[in-house]
Task: structure prediction
Amino acid sequence: MSTVAAIATPNAAGGIGIIRISGEDAIKITEQCFKSFSGKKVSDMKGYTASYGQVTDKDSPVDEAVVIVYRAPKSYTGEDVCEICCHGGLYIMQKVLRLVFSLGASPAGPGEFTKRAFLNGKMDLIQAESVMNVISASGDAALNAARNTLKGDVSKKISEISSLLISSAAALAAWSDYPDEDIPAVESGELRKTLQSALDSLNKLLQRYDSGKAVTQGVNTVICGKPNVGKSTLMNVLSGCARSIVTSVAGTTRDVVEETVRIGDILLRLADTAGIRDTDDEVESIGIDMAKERIDTADLVLAVFDVSRPLDSEDRLLLELCKEKRCLAIVNKSDLEHSFSSAEIQKYIPVTITLSAKNEDSFNTIKDALENILGTAGLDFSQEMLTAGRQYDNVKKAAECIEEAIFAIDSLLTIDAVNVSIDCAIEQLLTLTGKKASEEIVNEVFSKFCVGK
Ligand code: GDP
Result:
């Protein structure tokens, strides 16, 4: 594999900038552009040691720097790695990087260092994915979940389950393929028990995913309601700043205003949309079409109603649209005279809260309701948690295959039928950890990374 380099710190001015070089020639390249003040050569440095000196371009000084050397396999990537820690000016970092390129390194792609760590067996694909989650964690709960996954908690669980399945499949195959040998019969009751316990473990991971996602990845949320019910005011309560335009003229929130806000441990990706009524106003109707589409695709709908005005056809349209969705109804303007009872709303949307967006307590009322509806209230973030959609899909498919295997046993189908389903589950779990993932899957995972990680 070629030697690659990239700026590992943000692409912005800072106190220190780190140029990371990984690969066979990392040490040779660094030695050619760095002279330590002590006279020690980079090639004589042991792993995990640092040296203070000068980055030079053909003997002319570029910057003072500290070089840290990591020797294979004891490095992040598993290869020889040098980190040049220079001053964190954009120009200086680019200059040092260009110098490193001129000496033979190639530019690292997005996530290339972590990809190399994966390819060199330093971590599996689940752990690699969690690296980005550690970086993007926006609160303690999300950080805990990501850190535990990076440590290998989920990987260990998945390995245990796949080992169980592999032994079962092997025993079944041996028994059916070599009927003349003296191989003990596989007892279907025992096999069923093993499969059921694997299925239970996978289902537990799946159940926790949704709640965990609210914390680690954020919930795609839409605020809906007819004009003037208080959507923008609520959005501002949640985001803590005057982001949407709040006015008393109906229909002023024409566009979708998007914002990510953290409410306790929950991350809401909020879109505040126009109302949902039928309209002749072309500009407004574009916003309204978007609102309907957003309700369809959202993970969570915050449906807002104005208790000071009787429920009308627009409100009822929204209630209909929300019937099948995960939805929190917010009956707003409770400080004004009530024109309907919240029980009306509850018939369609079970979780309904009544509040005044103008009241300071409203944030906490919404927070408590969200924690309940998203299931994060009693969630233990120290337990294994899937943290990416890809992981969820693989586990779900594996669970479905195990269900099929159990069905095959219960229906007294052939051993082959049972084995095909177990094999399919194993395949999914091996793809999940990356042991058998295709190049496309691996590339897809790392394409989401930033350069330098
Ligand atoms: P939107 O069109 O749904 O985004 O509604 P806005 O957030 O722009 O609010 C419309 C009007 O209702 C504004 O004048 C707000 O100040 C007012 N409003 C919002 N929430 C409350 C509330 O809880 N009580 C009262 N009395 N007025 C509110």
About this structure: DSSP finds 15 helices and 13 strands in the chain. The pocket of guanosine-5'-diphosphate is lined by residues 225, 227-233, 246-248, 252-253, 332-333, 335-336, 356-358 (CB under 6 Å). Confidence is low (pLDDT under 50) at residues 242-255. The chain has three domains: 4-108, 132-208+385-447, 216-374.
